[in-house]
User: What shape does this take?
Amino acid sequence: MSQKSDDAKAVVRYDETVLRAFAADIIRALGSYPEHAEIVARHLVLANLVGHDSHGVFRLSPYTDFVEAGHVDPAARPTVERESTATALIDGHSAWGHAVAEFATEIAIDKAARTGIASVGVRNSFHIGRAGAYVLTLAEQGLVAQIFCSAEGAAFIAPWGGTDPRLCTNPIAIAVPTSGDPILVDMTTSVVAEGKVKLSRTAGKNLPSGWVLDRDGEPSTDPEDLYTGGTLLPLGGVVGHKGYGLGVIVDLLGGVLTGGLPGMMGPFLHNHFLLQAFDPATIIDRGTMEEAQERYFAYLRSSNLRAGVKEILLPGEPEQRAAAERKADGIPLDAGVIRSLDELCERLSVTPLATR
Amino acid sequence: MSQKSDDAKAVVRYDETVLRAFAADIIRALGSYPEHAEIVARHLVLANLVGHDSHGVFRLSPYTDFVEAGHVDPAARPTVERESTATALIDGHSAWGHAVAEFATEIAIDKAARTGIASVGVRNSFHIGRAGAYVLTLAEQGLVAQIFCSAEGAAFIAPWGGTDPRLCTNPIAIAVPTSGDPILVDMTTSVVAEGKVKLSRTAGKNLPSGWVLDRDGEPSTDPEDLYTGGTLLPLGGVVGHKGYGLGVIVDLLGGVLTGGLPGMMGPFLHNHFLLQAFDPATIIDRGTMEEAQERYFAYLRSSNLRAGVKEILLPGEPEQRAAAERKADGIPLDAGVIRSLDELCERLSVTPLATR
Assistant: This one.
């Protein structure tokens, strides 16, 4: 048993390997292929490791509900619908999203190895989790990568000037290989992820201003307003038309281009996405690029700091630090998450975390 | 003579063709190739047409200063430094930026026609103007296009948590072809373009909060603070780490990858950029895509409106409307701009606007 108690915060810390085996058992118990279960488990725990708990093992319970509601088909596998030397279109057939996205990532790696560049569209995947995970895999293979991830079955953001939800949080993630860990930007095109509003609602807290509008399009700090006809604001604050514009681009490239249905145009919790990669060595020698990157990073880090700030971080570094800390100290799960996982174990006859 | 007086606003309206010929005469008088002069003039007037006057003919005067200071070489032409089937690296050799970017755009079109996809890096170009213009050209050829545009010789934005300027406003522009005008997002990764702060300073007005920090990293509404050691904030407001992250990506892909020097790492007013394009027909039939786009646009437009808003616009529509209005009514230039252009005519012995 590798858990560590942390009474002060009512959390228990679990070793990543324990959590991974546990998550794979749950996904397998849902009738999934063992290799899909391994992939989903790896991605859920990876999200916890980098500190994005909203995409972590907490999802096992809602994912189970989505299997039962028919949004994900554990017996499905993705297929290639169309292909050229550098491009492909994949249908996910409602298979586990992490497995579909890994399939797309492997195809992108293969095509980029042949032609230096690849563009892979995917429709009808179940939830792929953290969009940044896949571009990071590509960057670890030495490729510059970008993903536009549209979502079906939910909408939170209004078109700029509107009051009705039409777009999802539609993340864009970009990763660039370096001599060390890749640089990673992984961001929603809304001001924050919808999960953060839900968290405030659960905690009974008000929101910061600039996050949501009520059903009449008036600014609000009440999280309840988002769930009673209101909307989440796009990225940008006073220049929110920029976030709206990026959100539309994500729907057009991730959703429409692949034959998917963005937002409430379709009924299932699906992701539709476009994954692009290219080999920077087609433009510049790898060593030359890495040396120039180091000089650039030193230039950024040479800035003086605002009061209370300890150091300049590069995009992706906060997640790398969380991962190092959690690999060493374990992944903290709070009592509410553990309770929901225990219930799930009972439902699926899987060994609970406490006795592993 | 095609000008129209508008005394109330102290502006004169000029026909686009008159302005284009005028701008080309100025650029030619600086010792430029006639074809480069035509391209620069076309892009400056196009910026005016779509309402982005900060990138319009007003630039002729500062551009002339930049020629004299050696930032642009009117006798230079871009060269291809490295090439593969789908990728290229171009050196701009300080040639006129609009001409360099058009050269890169043509290469991207040619490569995308062969392989369905293209990635073209460019270093050491003079100022390319509106980044959106080039992706729009690619989209008009039926291609999905994106540009990451880094800048050298200026810096306004601090790394997140810092107080010293290190990044330029680093725009990203993306265009998607449709059955009508392309969808276009063309945005700085700062909260606003630096020119808007300069405009407020000239007008003696305070800034909205959330635009700049003073030299100590404290919020300020005084435009002067940006020019005395302060910084412009990145896109995102409370989540400005997102704009900072995107700005770093733009420097890495536009600048470092191409062998350019981002921000104050280099002395010249240069742009370094990465232009990417792919043919959506490699993923989906053009007709199927366009029909699905129309359904998606109708879905967006079906939202109710916030108080005071007349309609939902798609990204790029505000610029299309400005262009239609200005094509019909002429391009308004204010007295200050006309005065600076008159002085330029005297300096370069070019026929002034008033006598054309």
Notes: Chain B has ten helices and 13 strands.
